[in-house]
Amino acid sequence: MSKNKFSPGEKTIIVKEYLAGGTSYVKLGRKYKVDESSIRKWVNNYQAFGEGVFEMNCTNLNYSAKFKKKVVAAYLNGDGSYKDIAIRFKIHAASTVLQWVKQYNNHMELTDSRPKGVVDMVNNKGRKTTYEERIAIVEYCIEHNNNYAETALKYEVSYQQVYSWIKKYQKKGIEALQDRRGKSKS
What we know:
By secondary structure, the protein is an all-alpha fold. Helix content is 57%, strand content 0%. The radius of gyration is 23 Å and the shape is elongated. The termini are far apart.
């Protein structure tokens, strides 16, 4: 029923139309061919975070373990619903709060969202390496419990490169680390 993606400007127009009054989520959903729950979420985010909320990149937000514990404590103290807590602490999705509460209730440790090196692995484009370097990188990674992020950071290569080299090594051994691109098959 819904259009795949709405631009930030389109979302803002729909939200402002709702906030102006005189129409419901259901009517706007029919008018713009979008699920009413999406509009409700947009309105909540707009009210919580303001005008530029739809321009924000919410995928790379980092939350510390301390912050997560504070949020969970607020929920468990009865300070509000998941949605209320998310708005109060400026978290974009109530489901994030729900996830942290479930982790806490299941006696799982609440950890930092992105440990050191994880952000870098996403942005690092990688570099060309020699066969000897790839061997050293694979050995280091295996010695450090397959910590791809740490290895990528240390050797200034991409996370994806380290991951693929480890998988090749595990499947076919050290010879699989040779760069065979452009070589003719025997």
